[in-house]
Amino acid sequence: MSIYAKVEKGPAIEVFALTQAFKDDSNQNKVNLSVGAYRTDAGVPWVLPVVRKTEIAIASDESVNHEYLPVTGLDPFTSAATELVLGADSIAIKENRAFGVQTISGTGALRVAAEFLHTQLNRNEVFYSNPTWENHHKIFSDTGFTSLHSYRYWDQSKRQLDFNGMLADLDQAPPGAVIILHACAHNPTGIDPTQEQWKQIADLMEHKKLFPLFDSAYQGFASGDPDRDAWAVRYFVSRGFELLTCQSFAKNFGLYCERAGNLTVVQQHASTKAAVHSQLTLIIRGMYSNPPAYGARIVSAVLNNPALRQEWMDCIKQMSSRIREMRSLLRDKLVALGTPGNWDHIVNQIGMFSYTGLNENQVRYLIKEHHIYLLKTGRINMCGLNTGNIEYVAKAIHAAVT
Ligand code: PLP
User: Where do the coiled-coil regions begin and end (predicted)?
Assistant: First the structure.
């Protein structure tokens, strides 16, 4: 008998299974609202023009070669990424208390962060929002965390943030627990705390000595302004927290498959940097030795050149504005159809996703009867909507609800 015979088949990963089902569906009206990637109004992926231009420049640069990057990545990339999230005038950068290491996109940043927290800081307790991006649980559990908890976040009946529930649950967390916070554009709900609420979260976390781990997968993509989207992280740094931030350049640069990410470490004192950096180096060395260069070269070239950076800023404005337009259009169409319920949450949410409030039965109906693919939680990717399919989707939602 094969030694592999005892391996049990694992469950399908919902988002990838839905995308496959969408591909296999021959219905001409089919719509994919499941996968977390940007689509243009024509329903196709978008290579940002500034990214294309930079790729061409890199490809024709004879001095570029394919030598290994250092274990912690490309320095001009990590410094630009760290500055993007903490701000050019960050006191932590000025005092040499902050630095970044390149990672395999946002997921890799989270995995390296989890490994560091577990093995170097002996953390075993992590809290993530309910709901959250489903990989948070897996990453921390695969790392060896055995005490994994969720804190309340979404109030399904009111379709808004359950702020009191969130504070009450965080208040129960033991000192030192790692708290995963979405820096902006919370996935999957699209609901972020207000600045006033972030201040209260910071008060509680400071008082209870909780450790903030910011997951920043949508900076700039949410509001169109990277500074505004980084407000919460910068606020925590200004309060003197030591923290980690996991950055992805998948969405805001459209570099999904290129795996460009950065883990930013903010410390109280510059004196701990050498030791922390060395341990992160060893963690990465043992996991995948060194990161890929392609995406990091593009991000670095763009962020470190004022003219290219401006072009990038224009691109993220364009993407976030299209999403906002789709939000208003969908809400307006549902209201015009007289679809039961209040649909204002669709325009009040921010970022790529909307947590529609549709239940599992309604989701099943949309997939089966209308070939509209979305997660069973009712999360839709707003970018999957466009002027060509929004009427069809609104009518289908109407039919699902009535
Ligand atoms: N964190 C959140 C909240 C996300 O939504 C995602 C991607 O969907 C990621 C992290 C990581 O993405 P990636 O590894 O593609 O950068």
Answer: none
